[in-house]
Amino acid sequence: MKKLTIYIVLAMLCLKLTANAQDKPTVTALKIGDIVPDITNNNIINYPAKTAKISDFKGKLLILDFWDTWCSSCIQFLPRANTLNRTFLDRAYILPVTGQKLENIQKFLLGSAFLKNYKITSVVNDQVLTKLFPHNQLPHEVWIDPQGKLIAVTTDEYVTAQNIEQVLKGQKPQWDFKNDKLDYNAQRPLFFSDNNVKLKPGSFLYSTTFTGYLEGVPPDQQVKTDTLNQTKRFSFVNQPILNLYALILNNGLPFMATRRILPTDHSNIYVYAVQSGYYDEWLKTHTYTYEAIVPVGFSEREVLKQLQFQIEYLLKIKGSVQERETDCWILKRKDSPATLQTAYAKKDIQLNPNHPLFTHHIQAADLEWLLNQKENALPVINESVTTAPFDLDFKTLPVTMEEWNVVLKPLGFEFIKQTRKLDMFVLTEQRHLISSPALESITR
């Protein structure tokens, strides 16, 4: 792991904080080990007091959890934050922080089926903490030790009971610093020369770059046309190999666990697994960035062929869609008097084992999609010929197809094992993947 010596960049090197009339501390740029200023937060909901100061948490580990309503990972983490707060009581506290307005947050919390049973505390309408700890990717977790010192900045997956306990015991975090690239502009080319060389409009031929992970840059994919220079830019940033193949083949099979065949010896290179460690760390060694700038007349198909050539030449792999005869589970709609119905107005799926399990207002196609996400399982094909929505509530999530059939029988559904010829995404290795350091030497 890198030593945590990276400085937090502030939008202003010297920022006057005016949280209230009596408290106006001067804050300069912080680095790991610095004392965090005693900021007062006047806009806070579901909290015992009307305000919360940083010093109120002295003697505790304080984790500022930056979130927004559009961030699904943030939403998933909020109940876990509540649980951790109850677990550690007066030893640690996770404080959610958002820049969104009070009325928007209250409306969201009341309307969220996932959060409505939780009393979520949060700083709202934040104007200060976000400037003090700038970021462009969420979730964003700021760790402040019981003495008020900044000790780490991470994603939410690091906020676990085990890690909190270790920090409380005095263990210094050794995680990489979450260092978002604040000046990143997705509308500009990723790589460009500082040489003062100008091209005549229409004279540009072709430029491609293929690299490993770009630190601090959010995952992205876009196509941008520059009408002035008559060029088109294709940008696929920090994407796993399977994502790139889905683009190349214009096919969603690489995303479906039951419809892909991967090299068994190195499957963790292509698909994240919990045993691989932190997802944040996995991304840094298993994602790639490709940018192509081409004449405006070039088609997307031509660019994607070039991307496929570079991936397969440099990484020594080969991906294709092949028809294979395979056993599968076929979802059938039996002759049944059961009428499908739902008590909910919109689709809502909750299969997190730490919370009540349900799938509300789903269709048979949703069930097909869900079951095709299971690794090392047979493909699931929906042949029920129905689009009517229905609800399923679980005490425990079914594991085997026999268990699913017990749950689905009252609704008139049944899984039957049959053989089908199916398109499968097949990935083969010509030899072991080139390591990240080797790839970096190629692309430098």
Notable traits:
444 residues; alpha+beta; Glutaredoxin; 4-stranded mixed beta sheet; 4-stranded antiparallel beta sheet; globular; disordered N terminus; disordered C terminus
Give the N-terminus to C-terminus distance in angstroms.
23 Å
Helix content: 10-25%
Radius of gyration: 25 Å
Largest beta-sheet characterization:
4 strands, mixed
Indicate the CATH topology of the domain at 14-168: Glutaredoxin
Average pLDDT figure: 86
Number of strands: 21
**CATH class of the domain at 14-168, anyone?**
Alpha Beta
Task: Estimate the global geometry from the Cα principal axes.
Answer: globular
Poorly predicted ranges = 1-27, 437-444
How much of the polypeptide forms β-strand, as a percent range? 25-35%
Characterize the quaternary organization of these chains: single chain
CATH superfamily of the domain at 14-168: Glutaredoxin
- Numbering strands along the chain, what is their spatial order in the largest sheet? 7-6-9-10
CATH architecture assignment name of the domain at 14-168:
3-Layer(aba) Sandwich
Number of helices: 11
| Backbone structural class | alpha+beta
